[in-house]
Amino acid sequence: MSHLGEEALILLHYGEGDGLEADRVHVESCLRCQAALDALERDLEDVGEMPTPERGSDYGAGVYERIEPRLTRGRSRWRPVWMSAAAAVILFGTFLAGRFSHDAGPSVSQEGLRERVLFVAIGDHLDRSQMLLLEVMNAEHGDDERSTARELLKESRLYRASGTGVIDVPTTEVLDELERLLLDVAHRASPDDVLRSRINDQDVLFKIRILQTAVRERERRNAITDF
Amino acid sequence: MQALSDDLTVERARKGDPAAFRSLVETHARDVFRLAFRMTRNEDDAEDVVQDTFIRAFQRISSFEGRAQFKTWLYRITANTALDLLRRRKRAEPRSAPLDEVTTGVSGGQENAVFGRQIRERVDSALEDLSELERAAFVLRHCEELSLGEISHTLDITVNATKQAIFRAVRKLRASLSTVPRSVT
After folding, report:
1. Based on CB atoms within 10 Å of each CB, which residue in A38, A224, B85, B98 is the most buried?
2. What is the pLDDT of residue A139?
3. In degrees to the nearest 10, what's the CA dihedral of A61, A67, A68, A72?
């Protein structure tokens, strides 16, 4: 039997591989391979177990306490599709009302209402898009995801059409980028791994989070001005 | 109180029982933290990964079909969450100070500690130089002792790709360690 290469030795060290038993027998009778295995094991011992900071037995309870508000919010914001569609219809109605009353000059409250509805709807749209992309990142996407992507795509186009002059450039850019991905998911234009690479390479989830924060801040400011 | 089995707890969590989901978090949080820390090498990042992992798990638990063990499924989410974070970090932040700068100025009486620290720093530096996939595969095999099949499932790659990632990781780590003296005479 010829000597074992590094790859075979690595598999042997970890107890993996098809010819494990034969390799083990060979190493026991071969000084050269024994020395090579010893050197490998010494190096891997130096790598060690990568010690981690201690966490007490109540750590899990603490983690749950920290995430619980986000779980509740996530569940309540994860509205059925028909509710988002209803929001889109209301938004479009508000938009049309704004247009047809233009001769009389748009009142501040009308513009304010339009902007408010728009940003609440965009916030909801971002939440749902984020969840969809997380699904895509963590599992193969199927008919449900494609159907959700198509819905989100329609909504996004409506928000952008309704938001002319209200939505700023950075928000438009993120929505553009998101639309291209939604289009890809809806039509399964790219293999899952290519899609995941695009989501990662373009930092899409990160950009969505940033935008969500900005939108929520805007919602909060709008709520404060109500009082 | 007798602990509920994972399967039963998962089933209740899938049906929307918050107490069951809480129980899963309490049972698995330390394991998730350990894996997250080993992949990110940073305590704050690991804490972020833990929280994001359980939020993702909560959002997806209704689609968990029980074909894999819950812990493997959770590890899969943890690994992907950590990979997301590492990829963002890699682009956003400059590398840490080179080893030579870190070790300058250590006195002669502390050679063994210095060599131990040098090895640790070489390992840390080499781990940073691994691709995210190599690091994930290596950590899952070397530290978490998952089988090649389990790692392949966790990272959604073939068994052969898993092997190759581990081989490359070990090769790079060994190359990095080869420049450090092992003992003081």
Report:
1. B85
2. 66
3. -160
**Residue B62 contacts residue B158 (beta carbons within 8 Å):** no
Among the ranges given (A129-133, B43-47, B147-151), the one the predictor scored with the smallest mean pLDDT:
A129-133
In A, what residues contact B, Cβ < 8 A? 6-7, 10-11, 14, 16, 40, 42-44, 46-50, 52-53, 55, 59-61, 63-64, 66-67, 70-71, 74, 78, 131, 134-135, 137-139, 193, 200-201, 203, 205-206
| Phi and psi based region of residue B5 (left: phi greater than 0; alpha: psi -120 to 50; beta: remaining) | beta
Using the predicted structure, report yes or no on whether residue B51 has a pLDDT greater than 50.
Answer: yes
The interface predicted TM-score of the complex, written ipTM, equals 0.78
Percent of chain B with pLDDT strictly greater than 90: 32
Look at the block and give the residue holding tokens 């900005």: A214
The torsion of the CA quartet B134, B139, B140, B145, rounded to 10 degrees, works out to 130
SS (H, E, C) chain B: CCCCCHHHHHHHHHCCCHHHHHHHHHHHHHHHHHHHHHHHCCHHHHHHHHHHHHHHHHHHHHHCCCCCCHHHHHHHHHHHHHHHHHHHHHHHCCCCCCHHHHHCCCCHHHHHHHHHHHHHHHHHHHHHHCCHHHHHHHHHHHHCCCCHHHHHHHHCCCHHHHHHHHHHHHHHHHHHHCCCCCCCC
With the C-alpha atoms ordered A210, A158, A152, B18, is the resulting torsion angle positive or negative? positive
Q: Is the pTM of this model over 0.90?
A: no
What would the mean pLDDT of A125-143 be, rounded to a whole number?
Answer: 77
**Most A CBs within 10 Å, among B14, B26, B60, B89, to test the A interface:** B26
Handedness of CA A111, A113, A119, A122 (dihedral sign): negative
